[in-house]
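pasting input
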Amino acid sequence: MSGSDPATASAEILTVTEASNAILSGTLSPIELLETYLDRIDKIDNKIHSFIHVDHEGARKAALLAANEIAAGRWRGPLHGLPFAVKDNYDAAGLPATANSELRIDNVPNSDAELVRRLKQAGAVLIGKLATWEYGTGNGGEYYDLPFPTARNPWDTERFPGGSSTGAGVSVAAGTTMFALGSDTTGSVRLPAAGTGTVGIIPTPGRLSLDGILPNCYSLDNPGPFTWTVEDSAIVLEATADRIAGDPQGELGFRRAIGQPVAGMRVAVVSDTGPGMSDADSELANALDQAIRVLESLGAKTTEVKLPIAPSLCFHVTSILGPAESAAIHEMELRERPDDMGYALRDKLMLGSMLRAVDYITAQRQRLAIANAIDGLMRGYDALVTFGTLHVSPRLGVEPEMTAFTKDTMLTPFNLSAHPAMVQCTGFSDAGLPLNWQIVANRGDEASIYQLASAYEVATPWRQRRPEL
Amino acid sequence: MTQSTSFSDAETEAFAKRYGLVKLTKDHLARMKELAPIASDLGRDLPHLNHKSDAPAPTFVVVSKAAI
């Protein structure tokens, strides 16, 4: 919980739970809540560029409908009447879906991505479309050759928030939306969550539908929600997720895990980033250490381990899978309109066009070996904690900071191994930038992530602090 | 990482033509030439598996839509 008093707090800093309770009790209307967000977008989004498109009219209609339904006693659940936004690679009926590309500047789909449909069905109010790297593609740079400007980190607008779901992290941290959906191929949910101090999770692949999301890499793409709190994340994931093989009967249990004691949970700790990867910044290393102490004080049983595979090898594998699959998906754009795409996308598609099928298959063979190795480690534990990023949010346009923030991470092993993984704020640097860690669980066991992350969140003061804009 | 020999200008252009990338400009081709050794190094430097039975990850499962 944010600890905000719903009676006095500004609506845009309420959590999902707080706002939902206020709406149910009649002290807050969906219309008033939406207008607070639209006002805030008008006031501050020119500083942070979290949105590509704001749908004032559609959002107002949806908020009015929600207000009328709730007043008539037809409450649909905890997201009813709450504003959200999605990365611009998601389809939403009647709204532009540009993926920040000249190639799709006139693309207006006539149906919703499945996750958007489910959120609308739950009564949530779509505000608009959020900033992204073109087609979700970037190597960490700041790009000046795209239709829409780079989103800026609300903790320091001279810094980058992390990509590719740039706007999703920025909007949730800055309070221009209450929650958001992004997508992750090799870190694109967890990087901006790390950079902006928000909660970003990728579930077990298959839990969240990719239907209606512009593909980037078939074998690695995975959507994920951004929220301010862990409980909010559980609510959004539960409203959008599918059951997968191995799930127990009954409800998914993400929300039920919130607030459960962690005493006795077995937690593997990885603080060694392995050969070929940078060491973490000292402030991130200290924050990881302190976060582990918090878990131990709550009774969790921690054990220092090494990853059985080098994260640098994982990065190497994804450097083949990503470009090769993207080139296969978007080859016609490279053939027909190479001058209409930005430098980073064109680079990736040209690189992918030159990779051999032999090397792609070898990379997929490595992927299975990596997944097996991480499975072997995870089998003895309820969860694993390690760094998310190894550096704090970089200064915009400053190299090698920008590229290092994107490439020096502990994120790609869990894309390859297909384990659910969350990045969560673990405090702030001396410069006031969010620090982070990553919590990983066995496939299908997102509940253990929520259990640990919520216990940590309650035991620490980090949710009390918001960026000032 | 090892550094492969780069394509020549002519080899880069021929490669692009061979695969239908005929609308790449001179600037694009110059960049493609820079990327060529990166692509070959990525493949050559990737560690290979010890056993031929180490199969790829089953990321693409063939189920016809009619069967779903």
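fyi The longest helix of chain B spans residues 26-44.
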